[in-house]
Design goal:
By secondary structure, the protein is mostly beta strands. Helices cover about 10% and strands about 45% of the residues. The protein has helices at about 5-25, 140-145, 265-270, 270-275, and strands at about 60-65, 70-85, 100-115, 120-130, 155-160, 165-175, 200-210, 215-220, 230-240, 245-255, 275-290, 290-300, 315-325, 330-340, 360-370, 375-385, 410-420. Strand 7 and strand 8 (about 215-220) form a beta hairpin.
């Protein structure tokens, strides 16, 4: 008979072997499955809201089979203004649509649709609009929509490669500047003097990278809506903390185009001197509690090129300070101060980026804004003052480079009101 000690040893060996076999045959635990994305909670592609009027926190969203969640929104807004010293009649408008002393019109009859999740995304924005700007003639919304960026100003597709990288292409907002194209996106109703030097909407391809506090975008575009991909633009942004952001952005036309002999549409959307320029901006934004403060500096330059209709070089230097303070949930006061000047001696050269060689411009804008959920009402007063203009003469029928029907006025005051809803 086997001894008890021997039986005990055999039992131990059998138990050990069984444990090893069980371990070998054990099914590994399944990898954790990430929870599905919460429906209708994506970070939207656009439009960007840079002011007191905020994006809808609960945008309309519905699922579409095979695509995912589709978001829709829009802006229905109207405005009116009166101003001193409107500009003389100039093309491309008809006399009935010239720069007027007063006007009532819509500022946005726009809608947008977007897919903001997944590998393939898209953003489409269409409708009518006005982009009022200080220091330049302001035409009807119908004319602006037709001769600027058409009733489809923004439409692009986007490939989200991974969490950091994405590639997009189509008709896109520019990477340059601190103010966005449409009125509801900004602190003020009117765009400023520096905005006039920047391209607004362009065609092209854009590569984006974002990780941690850094975001970088580079693009090959057609600049000022020229239809020819010759511009290289880029933007670098660094988020110092939750309240402070600094960035640099700019672009350069690597080719040369004579934009002066184009159709009316391209003469209006594609100013010849600016289309052949280079531009550089430095931006800073502080946003915390009731405060938004955003100063920026701008430099532009265009080189002499008679083949492109540019017979003298010119540069501009400018700076702006935009700020807003929210007194309550429903009321805020915004303002903007700007100064810009063009190099050269007054009356010399033929290249005018501002109001002729040696000219300068100063502006101040004040915009109280009331908001009630998605509805807003705001008033605005803006004053522009020019220096170094060339004056015209009634005797020889020449126009000055300033305000007024003769171009000899150096100031313009504009009083404006805008109201409507965003959704």
């Amino acid at each position: 008979m086997l001894k008890r000690s021997t039986l005990t040893g055999l039992a131990a060996v059998l138990l050990s072997s069984t444990s090893i076999l069980a371990a070998d045959l054990a099914v590994p635990a399944p990898a954790p499955v990430p929870p599905p994305a919460e429906p209708c909670k994506a970070t939207l592609i656009g439009p960007a809201f840079n002011g007191v009027i905020k994006a809808n926190p609960n945008p309309t969203c519905f699922p579409v089979g095979g695509l995912g969640d589709i978001y829709i929104g829009g802006a229905l807004t109207g405005y009116g203004y009166t101003q001193s010293n409107p500009f003389a009649f100039t093309a491309p408008t008809t006399p009935a649509d010239r720069d007027r002393v007063a006007r009532f019109d819509f500022s946005n009859l726009q809608g947008w649709v977007q897919k903001a999740e997944g590998t393939f995304q898209f953003y489409i924005q269409g409708g009518g609009y006005a982009i009022p700007q200080l220091g330049v003639a302001n035409f009807s919304s119908v004319t602006q929509t037709d001769l600027l960026f058409t009733p489809l100003p923004v439409a692009f597709g986007k490939i989200q490669i991974n969490d950091a990288w994405s590639l997009q292409g189509g008709r896109m907002p520019t990477l340059i500047g601190s103010e966005a194209p449409f009125t509801f996106q900004n602190l003020n109703i009117n765009r400023g003097l520096l905005f006039v030097q920047e391209n607004v909407i362009n065609h092209g391809v854009q590569l984006n990278w974002a990780e941690g506090p850094w975001s970088v975008s580079v693009a090959g575009t057609d600049g000022f809506f020229s239809g020819e991909i010759t511009w290289f633009t880029g933007a670098v942004t660094y988020k110092l903390d939750d309240s402070n952001t600094i960035g640099v952005n700019g672009g350069l036309n690597l080719g040369r185009q004579n934009a002066f002999d184009r159709s009316l549409r391209y003469q209006f959307a594609t100013p010849g001197f600016q289309q052949n320029s280079g531009i550089f901006d430095i931006n800073y934004t502080y946003s915390n509690g009731p405060w938004i403060v955003s100063p920026y500096f701008q430099f532009t330059n265009v080189e002499r090129d008679p083949r492109a209709g540019i017979f003298a070089s010119a540069s501009t230097y400018g700076g702006a300070l935009l700020a807003s303070y929210a007194f309550t949930e429903n009321f805020a006061l915004a303002g903007r101060v700007e100064y810009e000047e063009q190099t050269g001696v007054r009356g010399s050269g033929t290249t005018s980026l501002l109001y002729g060689a040696g000219s300068n411009a100063f502006s101040v804008t004040v915009t109280p804004t009331f908001t009630f959920d998605r509805y807003f009402l705001r008033l605005e007063y803006a004053h522009v003052e020019l220096g170094g203009i060339t004056r015209g003469s009634l005797a020889d029928g020449t126009l000055g480079t300033g305000f007024g029907r003769t171009g000899n006025r150096t100031t313009q005051d504009r009083y404006m009101v805008e109201t409507g809803i965003t959704f």
